Amino acid sequence: MGLLSHLAVFLTAASAVVADPHITSIKFAGSGCPNNPKFSGSFENGCITYSDFVAVQPGYNSTLNCQAQIQAAGANPGWQVALKSNTVKGHAVLSPGASLDYYTTVFFSQDAANTNSLKGTLSNTGSSTLNQDVTLYAEANGGQVWSPCTGSDGYTGILVINFRAALNGDGKARFEADTEEWDLEWRRC
């Protein structure tokens, strides 16, 4: 079998995954999303637009989170899905010595003990205030948490994606999340 034949088989197998899985339910919870955020996009490439995700230090809300609980159906039987990456765009103001830790925790509610947390840090080690738009990216890098195997109904389970931001250090800091986007990946089971 030649290279083009292998590529055709691969593309056919990959496209067989998605019989257009669609979100049947999405719910939000957490201190960072007291008003339901707006959702756009698809199950595989979703986007959450926040209106009230603002962490401030010093203050009562130096740590915030927003958890999305997503149910989907319509995938072909015999596949599993997992979070591949998560990207949050926003704005950070960090005085010298302040930092922003950010976490994305993902699991399927059917097996909540099987969890993966992705972590990153943005620190201001300079001598002047950092005041800029930021993109916070986290990738599973082999630590994916996979859904149950889809059956004849194409149900993927309840995917839970929890984004949390925590401001640290002695200085003043502020972080405002504008959007959160994710990418999913599939495998045979």
TrEMBL record:
Q: Which UniProt keywords apply?
A: Signal
Any signal peptide, and if so, which residues?
A: 1-19
- Which InterPro entries has this protein been placed in? DUF4360 (IPR025649)
Source organism's superkingdom?
A: Eukaryota
Q: Looking at the keywords, is Signal present?
A: yes
**Does Amino-acid biosynthesis appear among the keywords?**
no
Record-given protein name: Secreted protein
